[in-house]
Amino acid sequence: MKDKLLLRKLVLLGGIAILALIYVLQVILGSRSSVKDFIIDKTYDTIEITSQENGTILLKRYGDFWKVNDEEADSGKAKMISDAARSIKTLSVISTSTSEDAIERYGFTDAQKITVKVSDNGKEYLSLEVGKDAANGQQNYIRVNGKNEIYLASGALKQRFNVKADELKAPKKEEAPAAEAAPAESAAAEETPNLL
């Protein structure tokens, strides 16, 4: 009887030890989730967007306003670009391959990719490569900071960063033509009857 009780206790302790081990493994592996957010929590003054199609676009912040290639930028469009670069949410790691097949499949050839670099006074905070759109168009394949991991990211990044410099420039302000005061005064004088 004593042996059976001892055996039961050993089995129960063994079961508890196995469950504790499973719990620890889940905690460790769960913290290595492939979902990752890339957030810039510092101020920055430069966003450089480069693609073979559109060349290099340089957005530079000066206090409260932006310039694109040394011309005044549309503040709403510059903010949209800045917000997209500031916070990038990934859904999963798709690949870690650097093979030519993976580069082509996910859109990281020189002809396909868009490179976005975010910096402040020359210190780089983010180097992002945006590849092809995923199936639904609201997600893209990306690589971050020169690493091999290819992520699936949400937010239609290719659509946001695939812009031309002219599209980011502030609209030109039209000057109203100066009113000619002299003809208006002479017309008023002609309409006033002469009482003398």
Q: What does the main sheet amount to? A: 10 strands, antiparallel
H-E string: HEEEEEHEHEEEEHHH
C-alpha Rg (nearest Å): 31 Å
Residue windows where pLDDT falls under 50 for at least 5 positions: 184-189
N- to C-terminal separation?
A: 140 Å
Q: Please count the beta strands (DSSP E, at least 2 residues each).
A: 10
Instruction: Estimate the mean pLDDT confidence.
Output: 85
- Going across the major beta sheet, what is the strand order? 1-6-10-9-8-7-2-3-4-5
Class by helix and strand content?
alpha+beta
Architecture overview:
- This protein has 196 residues and is of the alpha+beta class.
- It is built from 6 helices and 10 strands.
Essential attributes:
196 residues; alpha+beta; 10-stranded antiparallel β-sheet; 6 helices; elongated
Short description:
This protein is an alpha+beta fold. The protein has 6 helices and 10 strands; from the N terminus they run αβββββαβαββββααα.
Question: How is the secondary structure organized here?
Answer:
Elements: H1 2-30, E1 37-39, E2 46-51, E3 55-62, E4 65-68, E5 71-72, H2 75-86, E6 87-95, H3 100-105, E7 114-120, E8 123-133, E9 139-144, E10 150-154, H4 157-161, H5 165-168, H6 181-191
Antiparallel strand pairs: 1-6, 2-3, 2-7, 3-4, 4-5, 6-10, 7-8, 8-9, 9-10
